[in-house]
Amino acid sequence: MRSLHILVVNGRKVRQPVFVLGAPHSGTDLVARALKRSPGFHVTIGQPSVLHVAYSFARRPSISRGRGEAAAVVLRDALAQAWQVTARGCASCSPACRLAGGVAGTDAAGPCVAERTIERYGDATPDLLYCARELVDAFPDARFVQVIRDGRDVVAGMLGDSDTLASFRPGFANLDSEFPNPFLGVENETDRAGWTELSVAGKCAMRWRSAVRMSARLRYTFSAQQLTTIRYEELVTKPDTAASMVSEFVGARVSAIAMRDPEPRHAPEPGAWRRTLSAEQATEVEKVAGEELRRVGYGG
């Protein structure tokens, strides 16, 4: 049984922190925003200290492999820095964190959360999925909310995201030094041999496929008290039900109002890929990830 490390931030013990996991463009931002705007929560997204560690662990899994406690310490330190409420407040936060907190402009004074109201902490930095095991070592009482989404919609979202696409550039796709490479979705020699022949859409599909497989392994590894999985489609079409599910799981009230996106372009309706993917792209996604799509209920 793991020993519970006591971390104190802003004068309060960090108990049962909530982490939101998922592939890029899977809808983790909707859950993060709902948590961030719920009473008592201090949730961060993409703060530099955490983003650097998460991205490093994701791109180079060998860094943390076999170094459980050391990796846990690095993550605890990074999160402690991200959760610290300072006088500058949101001025030093990432754009994603500011957007989720409803902070407009670049000159907002003070933090988006009052230090005295903080009861729970959380984080929804991209690529935390690849740090899940290390996060459990760092916080044995942590709660994880996984979000999955139709891989075709995920691919469509990734294709319009220059930051995500940058990961596929030759200088970043480090398959020679890091193999297998879950971050890129390259799990075996067959994947590696076919990687260079794939289009960008195919590479996005491979990354989604690997992320969903990793999510499935986490569901088998973690208990129902540690991890729950919710579909993007439920977040968008049934926000009240989704908010109730998340509330029950984390043991705190999460508002459905905050889960609804006032700008539809930020939360496309399920099946939007039919308008945005070309026939060739859709065919390649099916070729790469069709089996996984059907396994998780997105066939047809």
Structural overview:
The protein has 300 residues and is an alpha/beta fold. It has 14 helices and 7 strands. It has a 5-stranded parallel β-sheet with strand order 4-5-3-6-7, sandwiched between helices. Strands 1-2 form a two-stranded antiparallel ribbon. Strand 1 (8-9) and strand 2 form a beta hairpin. Helix 2 packs antiparallel against helix 3 and helix 3 packs across helix 5 (132-138). The radius of gyration is 19 Å and the shape is globular. The N and C termini lie far apart (43 Å). The mean pLDDT is 88.
Please outline what is shown here.
The chain is α/β, with parallel strands linked by helices.
Q: What key phrases describe this protein's structure?
A:
9% strand, 300 residues, single chain, 5-stranded parallel sheet, two-stranded antiparallel sheet, 45% helix, alpha/beta
- Kindly provide the radius of gyration, computed on alpha-carbon positions and rounded to a whole number of angstroms: 19 Å
Number of discrete helical segments? 14
Strand content: 5-15%
Q: Give a quick account of the main beta sheet: strands, pairing sense, barrel closure.
A: 5 strands, parallel
The beta-strand count equals: 7
Largest sheet: spatial strand order: 4-5-3-6-7
Shape: globular
- Going by helix content, strand content and strand pairing, the class is alpha/beta
Question: What is the CA-CA span between the terminal residues?
Answer: 43 Å
Tell me roughly what share of residues is in helical segments: 40-55%
Low-confidence stretches: none
